[in-house]
Specification:
The chain has 439 residues and is an alpha/beta fold. It is 29% helix and 27% strand. The longest helix has 13 residues. The structure holds shikimate-3-phosphate.
Length: 439
């Protein structure tokens, strides 16, 4: 589905609530399913990726009722309660579903084949298959287990050995796969992270009374212990989805928006910290309700701002990894240069986002340099006064598509995007919410 718009738009205003955080939603389903009893999940997002996780657990014999548009109820069957699925499991383009499920399947006494849609079949999996094999899972995949592996993946699990593992890449998906596998191990599993990544799995496991301890970059989980449901989980609004509206408010001349109950887990708020450093007018009013204890939430208000270039350090990248495309748009309109250091992981997201965003923004007139160094890459963006409307491409990537719509709203003239159907992956309501704000 192509899309075009004519800019610039100067004014947006509104108050909104967003569907729940995609990362937290995956974990809420998985952990509720592994826990005996009923868990109500509120503010569940109907994004394609989360619906894949939901449909997989139905195929594994878990009853899941859809109550209202944003509420589901999971009837978990305990750690050993999953049924062998009737055939291969398809996870579409959802990398989180696939990698986290590999952790769960490592503990199951059956064989299952996981197949994916096209772009996920090109994303690296050795980072997960390697530690899970060390724990005892039998896994075969496309590619070479000495070099790199890709889906489809066949896995047969069982009772696992505990491991102590230094994760070589900063990846919450890898960490989470090992922790979930750790639930099925006969003793304690320990992981060390190179840099802190989103800790939603740890928080959710604690909420379900798993025996998990976190100290600095070390996480220890004890296996073979039944989980216990809190009964109800509220999923905060998705900060990754919110970031498109926050940046839009910051770059337009007459803008003010408030987004209610957004997740502000410190491992995810890199976008807010960096935008504030750039001079953005963003205020967060902490939510004090009890549900906020498990994952902190805030009402976020963003207004028109004059942005300036900043340096974003490598250690900050995991806390804003999914927001880099929209931050690149903000940097394109900031005064001076912005440097994003150590962003190599962007090459292996839904698409190569260094390429997708730099090609598109260059077409809009933004000077961008990519500097390759020994272990990663830096992006240097020189801000411009005005973006030029032009033809750009989504590269079938939801975050590239939404970032380029935001850029197009600030650009002079017409911007067209080849295909924006990919937006459904994380944020099917994006355009309808945007239209209401602009009206
Ligand atoms: C995610 C972790 C990140 C992120 C992805 C969701 C998660 O990926 O980019 O969109 O839910 O754990 P990596 O673990 O590959 O860094």
């Amino acid at each position: 589905m192509g899309f075009s718009l004519t800019g610039p738009v100067t004014h947006i205003k509104g108050v909104l609530t967003l569907p729940g955080d995609k990362s937290i939603a995956h974990r809420a389903i998985i952990i509720s399913a592994l826990c005996r009893g009923k868990t109500k999940i509120e503010n569940f997002p109907a994004s394609k990726d989360c619906l894949y996780t939901l449909s997989v657990f139905k195929k594994l014999g878990i009853r899941i009722d859809l109550r209202f548009s944003r509420e589901i109820v999971v009837y978990g069957k305990g750690l050993r309660g999953l049924d062998k699925p009737a055939g291969p499991i398809f996870v579409g383009e959802s990398g989180t579903t696939l990698r986290l499920l590999l952790g769960v399947f490592s503990g199951q006494d059956f064989k299952v084949k996981l197949i994916t849609a096209r772009s996920l079949s090109r994303r690296p999996m050795l980072r997960v298959t390697l530690p899970l094999r060390m724990m005892g899972a039998q896994i075969s995949a496309n590619g070479d287990p000495q070099k790199e592996e890709y889906p489809p993946i066949t896995i047969r699990g069982g009772r696992l050995e505990p491991i102590t593992y230094n994760i070589p890449v900063a990846s919450a998906q890898v960490k989470s796969a090992i922790l979930l596998a750790g639930l099925f191990s006969r003793a304690k599993t320990t992981v060390f992270e190179p840099v802190a990544t989103r800790d939603h799995t740890e928080r959710m496991l604690k909420l379900f009374k798993a025996d998990i301890k976190v100290k600095g970059n070390k996480i220890v989980i004890a296996g073979d212990k039944d989980l216990s449901s809190p009964g109800r989980v509220y999923i905060p609004g998705d900060i990754s989805s919110a970031s498109f509206f926050i940046v839009l408010a910051n770059i337009l001349p007459d803008a003010e928006i408030t987004i209610r109950r957004v997740g502000i887990n410190p491992s995810r708020t890199g976008i807010i910290k960096v935008l504030k450093r750039m001079g953005a007018d963003i205020r967060c009013a902490r939510d004090k309700s009890p549900v906020s204890k498990f994952e902190p939430m805030a009402d976020i208000t963003a207004r028109s701002s004059l942005l300036k270039g900043v340096i974003v350090e490598k250690r900050e990248i995991p806390s804003l990894i999914d927001e880099l495309p929209i931050l690149m748009v903000a940097a394109s309109l900031a005064k001076g240069e912005t440097v994003f250091k150590g962003v190599g992981e962007l090459r292996v997201k839904e698409t190569d986002r260094i390429r997708s965003m730099s090609e598109n923004l260059r077409r809009m007139g933004v000077p961008i340099r990519i500097i390759k160094n020994a272990r990663s890459e830096d992006i240097v963006i020189k801000g411009v006064k005005e973006l030029k409307g032009t033809r750009v491409k989504s590269f079938s990537d939801h975050r590239t598509a939404m970032s380029m719509i935001v850029a197009g709203l600030k650009a002079q003239g017409a911007t067209s995007i080849d295909d924006i159907s990919c937006i459904d992956k994380s944020f099917p309501d994006f355009l309808s919410i945007l239209k209401k704000l602009i009206r």
